[in-house]
Amino acid sequence: MDAIYTLHDFMLNSKNWIYILMGLGLIMYVCWWLFLTSRDEPKRIT
Amino acid sequence: MSQDTAAGKGNLFNIISGIIILAGLVVTFLRFTQGLGGVTNLDNNNPWGVWIGFDLLCGVALAAGGYTTSAACYIFGLKRFHSAVRPAILTAFLGYAFVVFALHYDVGRPWRLPYPIFVSPGTTSLLFEVGLCVFLYVSVLFIEFTPAAFEWLGFKKIRKVVVKLTLALTIMGVILSTMHQSSLGALFTIAPSKLHPLWYSTYLPVYFFISSIFAGMSMVIFEGTLSHHYMHGLMDKTHLDEADGVVLGFARGASMVMMGYVFIKIIGLVSDGTWQYLSSGYGLLFLTELLCFVALPAMLYGIGSREKNLKLIRWTSLLTVLGIVFNRFNISMVAFNYQLPSSQRYFPSLMEIVISIFVVTLIVTVFRFITTRMPIFYEHPEYAEHEEEPAAHGHGH
User: Fold this and answer.
1) For A15, which residue in chain B has the nearest alpha carbon?
2) Would the CB atoms of B306 and A32 count as touching at under 8 Å?
3) ipTM of the complex
4) B53-394 has CATH 1.20.1630.10 classification
5) Helices B126-153 & B166-186 angle (0-180, nearest 10)
6) For the whole model, what pTM was predicted?
7) Domains of chain B: which residue ranges?
8) What pLDDT digit, counting tens, does each position of B237-291 carry?
9) Alpha carbon separation from B231 to B16, B174, B276, B333 (Å, rounded)
10) CA–CA separation, B361 and B26 (whole Å)
11) Chain A partners of B270 at a C-beta cutoff of 8 Å?
12) How far is Cα B268 from Cα A25, in angstroms, rounded to an integer?
């Protein structure tokens, strides 16, 4: 990883990590919802 | 036999609360005759102590059950939570009313509390916004609570008028809560050099608002647990039938919100570049708060709601409530003024703690007084399935 010297470097580095974490977080969030609802009885559509 | 046990518990409660109230009255006398310096450890470095950290910040966060429950029932249409609305509104109303009551101890000239609203509004101040919202929201909660009192008193006409306002009051409650729950966090954004970097963030208003949602939901579960234990006889069949559904539904909701909260806290750390502090002592405290008091209960809530384990959920609600208190204490006291030498740090005096316990005891006493007289845990026979109340449409569906 390149060293951080300027505010721009810092912003670029932290934004990169935020985008990666957001992607992972959203996937994990869906997985958690599926885990929570996995034992629910299926809803009947009439 | 069981009646004897209940009477014994009631007497024990009266004795303990009587002693606490007596001690509270003595300290109240000292506070208003000797001033703040006579009873508190507050000073110019630490003008806000446990009365703000516990009575106000925790009181407001834990009273959030009022807007979360009424929003779930009346706005999102989850009518199966209807029986939880009245206890939640009452808890919220008492919580906020006693926040204002406790504030009288903390401000130097309590008789000037109405000044910011009626005499000299400081419209550029966050504290003004908090004050105005709390003032309006206490009024809204009071009106939301009045149907129970009117049913008890037999004021049918005025009750009918207030019940028609339910949806409007709920919407106002959600708006006002969104505003002041977040503004309480925003108050600390004016002190970036005083609050430890791990807790300081420009996202503080978001953290406070999101945490208030699961604090309120957990408080509804926790308060419901205590009520079922001590006031089981006051509940009607509808309330008892819906109770498990409320616990399971709120646990699932709280679990999702708490996972989201953990996620945005991590994003906040990355955004501010404060990772390096995690290896310090404060880092350990921060990780304990986030992992043991948010991530762990989020998982326990999830497992409990999935496996319909009510006991696990009820214990988790206590853990979550303690976690909220821990978080608010960290922000307002432990991580605040962290750079000061230990000799200048704040620790509450015994009399400050007595007043905080006194306030909680008053809330419990008034809650008990109201619930044993008014239709909070049951539907009043004369108004059962009343057609005007929006919630009444939910029964039987």
Assistant:
1) B271
2) no
3) 0.89
4) yes
5) 150
6) 0.91
7) 53-394
8) 888 888 899 999 999 999 999 999 999 999 999 999 898 899 999 999 999 999 9
9) 18, 29, 50, 36
10) 15
11) 14, 17-18, 21
12) 13
